[in-house]
Structure formats: C-alpha cells, structure tokens
Amino acid sequence: xxxxxxxxxxxxxxxxxxxxxxxxxxxxxxxxxxxxxxxxxxxxxxxxxxxxxxxxxxxxxxxxxxxxxxxxxxxxxxxxxxxxxxxxxxxxxxxxxxxxxxxxxxxxxxxxxxxxxxxxxxxxxxxxxxxxxxxxxxxxxxxxxxxxxxxxxxxxxxxxxxxxxxxxxxxxxxxxxxxxxxxxxxxxxxxxxxxxxxxxxxxxxxxxxxxxxx
Length: 214
What we know:
- By secondary structure, the protein is an alpha/beta fold.
- The chain has one domain: Vaccinia Virus protein VP39 (Rossmann fold).
- It contains 7 helices and 9 strands.
- The chain has helices spanning about 20-35, 70-75, 115-125, 140-150, 170-180, 190-195, 200-205, and strands spanning about 5, 10, 40-45, 60-65, 80-85, 100-105, 125-135, 185-190, 205-214.
- The strands form 2 sheets. Strands 5-4-3-6-7-9-8 form a 7-stranded mixed beta sheet, with helices on both faces. A two-stranded antiparallel sheet has the order 1-2.
- It is globular, with a radius of gyration of 17 Å.
- It starts with a strand and ends with a strand.
C-alpha cells in the first residue's frame, strides 16, 4: 500500500499486517472528512493510533483519551492534548458539542458501560459532526462454527479477546449506535475474505466500521 495524497498532505502508510483490518477503513474515512482546523478526539488512543494514520501536520488537531498512563504519555508527545482517564468514569472530561470528529477504534467493547459511553461520544460531538466507530463481530462464521461444537475460547487479541466485556452482532451494533442518537451513514467490513467477497459482512467480516453523524 503506497502513501496517499489528500488536500496536499501525505497520509501515513498503514502497516501491511493491518491493511485488511479496521485501521485502513478508518484511514480512508478520515481522508474524506478530516480537514485542517477540525478537532478530532481519539478515544482509547493508546500510543496515538489515529496519529499514525494521518499526516503529521494534523497532529496539532488531535486530542486523545487513554487510561494507561505510559501509553497516554507517549500519545501526548504528538497530540495536542491527552486525557489520562477511565472511559467508564462518566461524564468524560470534554465539553458538550466541542468535537468535530470522534474516532473510537475497537474500544467500546472494553467498557463496562458501553451504552453510556456511546451516548457520551454523541454528547461531545458537534451538530453535523462525524463519529467513526469500529466494533468486533461475534457473528462471523468461525465463531458460529465454534459455538456449534460447544466452544467459546477466549484469545489474547482479536474478536474473542479476553479483555472484551461485550460481544456484538451487526444488529446489536446498529441498536447501540442508534440508541445513542447517531445516524448511521455507512458500514464497512474488515478482513481479507470480506475484502474479496464484500456481500455478507455479518458472516464474513471480523470487524465492522461505522461512519455516523449527529
């Protein structure tokens, strides 16, 4: 995958091992909607996930929230501001209608209060703002077959990550977002198989990336 030009700015190259995952889908959405001067919130930013997907000249418009102290300190080296904060402690430390774009990449499923956290993301988003949320799909075919044979085995990473507190199907993902108030504009599936056969995301895609508006 080559670097991409957008509005005169070169977008970061996505690591090839992530090229079939939600990272590439999020990056493409940011290419369309993220403009200079906008304020973008990276929820559960780790060491600066979104910063690795956008031009370095955009880092000054990035705000992050991260619970892990060491990761928050790393992200703070390139982001305008990073809040070291537990997402389950609400409200979040941001003003209502203060953010242009919210990105929550594979983080909501880790929250005890997933519904309340999603509503908080809606609260802080400006009217007409964009929210990009990726969620793991428990209805993907490998997990259906595992359940058929009585297996539900947690793994260190992935959809069955042992740190996940919630599991979603495409239907329950939509319900989560709509109940928070979001309008779903687009749904994209990740995964190698889905990229070659993009016809049945609920069965083939391990992650679903939602583009939503307020």
